[in-house]
From TrEMBL:
The keyword tRNA processing does not apply. PANTHER family: COPROPORPHYRINIGEN III OXIDASE, OXYGEN-INDEPENDENT COPROPORPHYRINOGEN-III OXIDASE-LIKE PROTEIN HEMZ. Residues 150-390 form the Radical SAM core domain. Its EC number is 1.3.98.3. It comes from the Bacteria. Keywords: Oxidoreductase. InterPro entries: Coproporphyrinogen-III_oxidase, Elp3/MiaA/NifB-like_rSAM, HemZ, rSAM, rSAM_horseshoe, rSAM_sf. NCBIfam families: rSAM_HemZ (TIGR03994). This is Coproporphyrinogen dehydrogenase HemZ. The lineage of its organism: Bacteria, Bacillati, Bacillota, Clostridia, Eubacteriales. Pfam families: Radical_SAM. It comes from Gemmiger gallinarum. CDD domains: Radical_SAM (cd01335). GO terms for molecular function: coproporphyrinogen dehydrogenase activity. Gene3D superfamilies: tm_1862 like domain.
Amino acid sequence: MCLILHGMAGYEAEHTARMFFSGLQRADTVPQEGDCLLISSKPYAQMVFLRQNGEARWTACAASPEQEPADREYALCRLLYHFLQEKTGIRPPWGMMTGVRPVRIIHDMRAAGATEEEIRARFVDHFECTPERFKTALRIAEVQRPILADARPMDYSLYAGIPFCPSRCSYCSFVSRTVGDKATRALVQPYVDCLCRELKAMREIADECGLHLKTLYIGGGTPTSLSAAQLRQLMGCLAETFDLSRLSEYTVEAGRPDCTDAEKLQALKEYGATRISINPQTFSDEVLKNIGRRHSAQDILDCFAQARAAGHDNINMDLIAGLPGDTVEGFRKSLETAISLEPENITVHTLTLKRASNLVVEHRPDAYDDVARMLAHCDLLEKAGYRPYYLYRQKGTLQNLENVGWCKPGYEGLYNIYIMEEVHTILSAGAGGSTKLVQPGVRHARIERIFNYKYPTEYIGQFDTVLARKKGVKEFYDAFAGTNPETTYQQ
Ligand code: SF4
């Protein structure tokens, strides 16, 4: 179906439309024939026209040129939302909300002095979010409240990225390279050398800015696609360069069992990781095959047992609802298996169809079972003593559902909360790294980004530029010299 935006109709209207129709293609004019959706916003009127399967319908409402742009946009989205809801029978769980961080709305409204009733009205009346989703967001806000209250503006988190994987998952849109081929294998060692240099440079910059390291995260890709010796080199460099004794959390994504063995798990423990991820995504061998994984469910169970044997006492497991070929019952079994292992965290993602992934390239709309019914089985987590502690949404997620991190009380993943709520700076090292600088002491006042090169070859080849760009961190903090940001985060 093609989508035509007319007049002042823009970004929010487009995203509202995409909640109801996947694969909308933008066009400039209404075609003579074929399915199309026209959204128009003019000074005195707003209008939506839909032609689908040869049948055409439209709806309109009056507008005023004096209306504030935000009110005009909301009125158009509401018109569109109700029209498409009636037409398709779809009831998006988050209603008209298009933002990726619903919980943050609660924190922001509370910080601005809103009452609980005003917050409820914002979610349920204004956005038409379901009461169940509002309740989940509210619960998560409560869990996060003391953690955010404890965050200090001059804290920062550090991310080190390993953009290599043993094979490519079909749903992946990340720039990760497969370490199977010789050319990529030859890149890994120079990459780790550069990464260590960048991390050392970051420590110096952090010191110059007066920043304190709060959490450390080695992610990917798949960090354990490095050899045991390379992992030791990287983690040894981190241990030498930073004072890990003051860290509140040190996460390493052990990710996939096809490259994680007892020796690497032992090294992670030895060098100070306090939290690791072993990510099954599913415990169905057939679905693992569908997504391009070259390991079995049994391999995941073995890897988990090895991690426990190595002393890892804070393990996260990622599952994905909506994988191709999975069923509601199959997802439930995966969830039950994960719960039976008693990891401290279970993160339930909803499959997101991203343009750069093989799944989208080979898109088969009939491959996905009812994801909402899969997620309904998350009550099993509740019964097993887990509680939701962070949540985010992504564009292109099946049925506009969400990703939720669940944990046993006291095992909240701090880095996940900090990155979602943007309470402090995240310095990011490695290819594809995006450093996010957060103005200290003032909620969401100023955020700036510094990007590293995306691909490992560029990152290694233009490493001097990578280092030079980091000067921006000092310049950012210099702008606030003389202010007194060392206060607690305002709730
Ligand atoms: S393990 Fe993660 S980063 Fe690597 S290919 Fe799979 S989804 Fe992509």
